Amino acid sequence: MNEEILFALITQVLKQSEEFRSLPEETLTKLASRASIKEYRKDAQIISQGKPIGAIMVLTYGKLEVSVDGCSVEQLEPNSGLIGEHEVLNYELNAKSSVIVVSQRARLLVIDRTQFMDIWDRQPTLALGISQALGRRHNRMSLKVNRWFELTKRTLNTVKLLESSLKQIKSASQIREEGDKRVVGLRYIVSVLPKALLPWQVKKLKQAYIALKNGDEIRIRSEEGKYTITGKKDYKGREIEISLDLEEYLFNMLISHAGGRVLTKKRYIIDHEGYRWRVDVFDEGTKCSGLIIAEVDIIEGEQIPNLPPGFKIIKDITDELNYRNRNLALYGKPTL
Length: 336
Description:
The protein is of the alpha+beta class and 336 residues long. 30% of the residues lie in helices and 39% in strands.
């Protein structure tokens, strides 16, 4: 990029930033002359927790995820404010930072700490402008922290409610039934022709297991913008489910504590000969990459339905515990 165009771009970014926009033109020009533009690919780690930060940054394009001790606490978008200013201004105190990772390809304006502090010492207006902007941001962050604590409390109450509900189950009347007969879920590992999936509705699912004990489990799931938390319990050989809705913020907070017990997949809903099949295609590059599981519910005693066209059974896994979703999340795809 032409140097004049780059300088104009950097100056424009500074003028749009809350922390810099009120500075005199002379100070902005000096800052722009010391700054650079850097591109970062998705999943790149910009800042590591516990390591000193050597620059102040402004996000101009893309998205960043902020986490502390493995817990996602904030999503940053353009105009979110300065990044790293607290650590740079308190560098001698060895201020500890959070982790910032690129969640969507990003472009940042970067000012080296030494260059920034040189202007800071020479331009009192810079210190005043940033101090005022940081005060306003501190007030906004206080509101966010209060909301975070409130949502954390609500999350714990939701989990406790699920656990309590599971413990109180004493009757098979709460088990999913059709009349007096059991509903049986048949599950198969299948191969499928790609064109066989094209006509059917597909949903993206992401789910994780935040509690597993004996036959009980608590699972969270995102499905096309809907977030749920589900408790499951084995009762006399039957599986009971209780589900509650979640807010997206709570889902993100809980999944950061799932310890890798996460599954991502595409689910196809296929209606065939009066039966509804659920076909899960697990994402490439994950612990269950290449696995395709087809599942259908029938009434106990009914004849096993025919598979949709283009499908071929590789293995019946109806009674195989190592292919349950909770175990796939824990241990990955078993060897056939």
